[in-house]
Design brief:
The chain is mostly helical. It has one domain. The protein contains 5 helices and no strands. α1 packs antiparallel against α2.
Length: 181
């Protein structure tokens, strides 16, 4: 099967390309700086995940504070006019909520630090993507980090980095086979 010659070059554009579905070797050239941009943004994302991990540790400590307040509530003498079981109920609720929050925050913290390490090593794409979706719920900082992560991780060039595929080779304009002369 033979392919037609490239269409005539438009005077305003320095290059004319074949459309999508073109024969192999024909099409828009790869961005020579895309690999550098991907690496830089993945490094930034890894740092942001480490920062979010530190914030998650603060969330664990806050949940443990609820547990401590609940324990103090259990041991406090009842106020005059209150039933003795009111401290047990309030303390039990605080301990239960704090313990549940501490467990969930600890799991999120561990996976956030693991994802930060995996981003730096270009492994576990799906874990990082799922965690980016979960970060959207952590308003406002987590939402910004989650959106940035989803934008970066959705690029095909970033997916290729996680799959271990080398970045495309850039040809200088004089060597590009698809450029009209």
């Amino acid at each position: 099967m033979s392919y037609p010659n490239p269409p005539p070059q438009h005077p305003a554009s320095p290059q004319t390309y074949y459309p999508q579905g073109s024969p192999p070797g024909y099409g828009p050239p790869p961005n020579p700086y895309q690999h550098q941009q991907d690496e830089s943004q993945l490094q930034t994302l890894s740092i942001l995940y480490y920062v979010m991990g530190v914030f998650s540790v603060l969330g664990v400590l806050t949940a443990l504070l609820y547990v401590a307040i609940g324990i103090f509530g259990l041991n406090a003498p009842p106020s005059p006019g209150d039933s003795p079981s009111s401290n047990l109920i309030a303390g039990g609720i605080l301990i239960g909520m704090g313990a549940l929050g501490a467990i969930l925050a600890t799991i999120l913290t561990v996976y956030t630090f693991k994802a930060a390490k995996c981003i730096a090593q270009r492994r576990r794409y799906n874990l990082i993507f799922i965690l980016a979706i979960l970060k959207l719920l952590n308003f406002p900082i987590g939402t910004a980090v989650g959106i940035f992560a989803l934008v970066v991780l959705s690029r095909p060039s970033v997916k290729a980095l996680f799959e271990g595929i080398a970045p495309p080779t850039y040809y200088p304009p004089a060597q590009q086979p698809w450029v009209n002369r």
